[in-house]
Amino acid sequence: MAGTVIGEGLSIEGDVTSDEEVVVQGNLRGKLTSTDAVSIGPSSVVQADITGQSVSIAGQVVGDITAPERVDIQAGGRLVGDVKAARFTIADGASFKGAVDMEV
Amino acid sequence: MSQSSVIGAGTIVRGNVEGEGSLEIFGRVEGDVSMGGEVMLGEGGAVRGNVSGEKISVHGAVLGDLLATHAVLLERGAKVVGDLSAPRIGIANGALVRGTVRTEGEPALAAPNKRAATAAVFKPSAFAAKPVAKAEPKLVPPAEPVEEDEGEDEDEDEDEDYDYDQQREAAVMPPARPKEKEPERRPPPPVLPSLGKGAKAKKKKHRD
Predict the structure, then answer these.
(1) Cys bridge to A34: A18, A73, A92, B13, which one at CB 3.0-4.6 A?
(2) pLDDT digit string (tens) for B136-147?
(3) B16 contacts A12? CB cut-off 8 A
(4) Which of A16, A27, A45 has the most B C-beta neighbours within 10 Å, making it the best mutation to test the interface with B?
(5) Any bridge partners for residue B195, and if so which?
(6) DSSP-derived secondary structure letter, B3
(7) Of A10, A15, A30, the CB nearest to B5
(8) What is the mean pLDDT of residues B106-115?
C-alpha cells in the first residue's frame, strides 16, 4: 500500500512533500513533490507542479511534471503542462497539451 | 463514496486539508485539517493547526485546537497544546494536554447548579478542603457551621471552607433548602420607568 493516499473527497490546498509513494484520488492545489512514485488517480483533479521519481497520470492535471525516471499519461488522463522526463508515454485516449523535454 | 486518506510518515503537507471521509495522519501537516469523518493522528504524526472532524483520535502531537462533532480521544503518548471541544472527550493515562477542555452538547452537565460545578472543578483548594471539612463535624459542635450557613447565605465571597460546606449541603439535600429560601432570593422589584409629571397626572385622572 502506498505511503500517502489523498483519497477521493479530500482536498489539499498547499504543498505536499514526501519521500514515499503518493497516490492522489482527490483534489490538490499547490505543489506535489516526492522522491518516490506519484500516481494521479482517475477521479482526481490536480492543479500543481508535480515532481516524482515516476509520475503516472489517469486524472486531470494542470501543471508541469518533472520525473527523473518516467511519466505516463494513462487512457482517460488529461495533462496540461510541460513534461520533463527520461521516458514519456501517452496512452491511446489520453489528452495532453504542453512541451516535452526528454533531455536529448 | 469518500475513500479514506492517509498522510504517510514521510509526507509533509504545508497547507489546509479538508474532505468528507476519514483521514489518517502519520506524517506532518502544517495547516488546518477539516474532515467530515474520522481523523486519526497516528504515533509520530504531527499537526500544526486546528483539527476538526466527527471523531478525532490522537496518538501524536497537535499544536492547535481540536473540535469534534462526536468525540475527541487522546491516547497514550498524545501531546496536545490547544483547546479540546466535543460532546465526548477522553484523555488516556499518559496523554499530555495544555489547553481548555470543553464537553459541549451535554445538556445534563451544562444547565443545573453552575456555580457549584465551577467551584468544584476550578478551585483545587476545594478538593484539598474535603478531608478537613469531613473531619470537622466530629471536633466542632455541629450547630456552628449550620448557623453560619443560614445567616450568610446570600454572600458569595466567603473563604473556601465555608464555600465548600455550602456546596456540600446543597449536594446532600438539594430540593428542600433552596425552596425555603427562594422568597429571600427573589430578584429586586422591577424598576419602573419614571413617568413625566403630566403623564402621572393623566393616569390618576384616568383612574378617577
Answers:
(1) A18
(2) 455 555 555 444
(3) yes
(4) A16
(5) none
(6) P
(7) A10
(8) 49
Domain ranges of chain B: 5-107, 112-174
Give the total number of structural domains in chain A.
Answer: 1
Q: State the pLDDT at residue A94.
A: 96
Query: Are the Cβ atoms of A11 and B15 closer than 8 angstroms?
Result: no
3-class DSSP assignment, residue B115: helix
Q: To probe the interface with A, which of B4, B7, B29, B35 has the most A CB atoms within 10 Å? A: B7
Q: Please report whether residue A97 resides in a domain.
A: no
Domain annotation covers residue A99: no
Amino acid at B162: Y
> Is the separation of the CB atoms in B67 and B85 below 8 Å?
yes
Q: Is residue A64 part of a domain?
A: yes
Give the three-class secondary structure for B163.
helix
Which structural domain range is residue A19 located in?
4-92
Is B38 within 8 Å of B53 (Cβ atoms)? Answer: yes
**In Å, how far is B28's CA from the nearest CA of chain A?**
10
CA angle A76/A81/A84 to nearest 5° reads 100
- Taking the CA of residue A35 and the nearest CA in chain B, the distance in Å comes to 10
- Please say if the pLDDT value at position B96 is more than 80: yes
Whether the pLDDT of residue B196 is over 80: the answer is no
Partner-chain residue, chosen from B5, B10, B14, that has the shortest CB–CB distance to A20: B10
pLDDT attached to residue A104: 80
Closest CA of chain A from B69, distance in Å: 19
Contacts of residue A30, defined as CB under 8 A and 6 or more positions apart, other chains included, come to: A12, A13, A14, A15, A16, A47, A48, B15
